[in-house]
Design brief:
The protein is of the alpha/beta class. It has 13 helices and 10 strands.
């Protein structure tokens, strides 16, 4: 099955001492296509970006499991050879709902996902005032995900995220992650770290469990390069806002230009070709591959070109 292959690939990265999964955050088909075109080995579907792109809303727990799973499945389906790690928020409810969420993510071909210990009406991990469930409730979520994975014969990677550092402190956060690992989580994710010393310490304290690092521009965690993350011992590092920030900044710039001047001037590459024209976008999304497949199968839709 396709989802088995992508999850297995992610597990191979986690098991290789020389590798780290560096994942740009994508939120729709276009941003995912760009990341694939550049050549990343894994992608991250951001929940914040999904909320912004699908709903036009902030990351305040407004997305449903169907919003998230459908978006993750679309992204994962663009290239089954590239693992997609997806945000699954809190699992969207109690153990029964977490089981349903896990099943949906498996069927959509997601390679890995993270579940956190916030209340169902959650918020971005780099906002203030987060509310948490107790450890038993959190562990029940992880246990439900692991049991569903076993029932379905999947090897999807379960990532346990805790947002407890802000209110409960480091020791309690590590205790929660250890409990989640004992319940079946494969990877540990301490959100909202504020120092590089903390970033290094949690990897040591949770060894040999692989650790996950979240690099949010404008957030509370110090930003490090992927090389530095690897040296600290992390196995997965995500830059979740790459897609959302690029769309926000690029769209804002071009809209301001159109509003001020009444036009959007063409951009050019160094060799004088139009950059970002309609055909460029279509080609990146598979225009030639689609037309060639149609011809190969005996279709006639593109015999005159596309």
């Amino acid at each position: 099955m396709a989802q088995m292959r992508s999850a297995t690939k992610l597990r191979q990265i986690l098991a290789d001492p020389d590798k780290i999964a560096v994942c740009p955050g994508v939120h729709d088909g276009l941003t995912a296509r760009v990341a694939l075109h550049v050549g990343f080995d894994a992608l991250y579907m951001t929940g914040a970006g999904t909320a912004a792109s699908r709903l036009g809303q902030p990351d305040l727990g407004l997305t449903t499991v169907d919003d998230m799973a459908t978006n993750a499945g679309m992204i994962a389906g663009l290239d089954r050879n590239v693992p997609v790690i997806a945000d699954a928020d809190t699992g969207f409810g109690g153990p029964l709902m977490v089981a349903r969420t896990t099943e949906k993510y498996i069927l959509q071909g997601v390679a890995g996902f993270h579940i956190e210990d916030q209340v169902t009406t959650k918020r971005c991990g780099h906002l203030m005032g987060k509310e948490l469930v107790d450890t038993a409730t959190y562990v029940a979520r992880i246990r439900a995900a692991a049991a569903t994975r076993e029932r379905m014969g999947s090897d999807i990677v379960i990532i346990a995220r805790t947002d407890s550092l802000q209110s409960l402190g480091y020791d309690e956060s590590v205790a929660r992650l250890r409990a989640a690992i004992a319940a079946g989580a494969d990877v540990a994710f301490l959100e909202g770290m504020r120092t590089k010393e903390q970033m290094a310490q949690v990897v040591k304290d949770l060894a040999p469990t692989p650790c996950f690092l979240n690099m949010v521009g404008g957030g509370v965690t110090p930003l490090v390069t992927s090389t530095e993350a690897k040296e600290l011992g992390y196995k997965i590092v995500i830059w979740p806002l790459v897609g959302m920030t690029s769309v926000y900044l690029g769209m804002r710039e071009l809209c301001r230009e159109l509003k001020a001047t009444g036009e959007v001037k063409e951009r050019y590459t160094d060799d004088g070709k139009i950059d970002g024209g309609v055909r460029d976008c279509f080609e990146m999304c598979g225009l030639t591959a689609c037309s060639e497949f149609d011809k190969k199968m005996g279709g006639t839709s593109f015999t005159s070109g596309a």
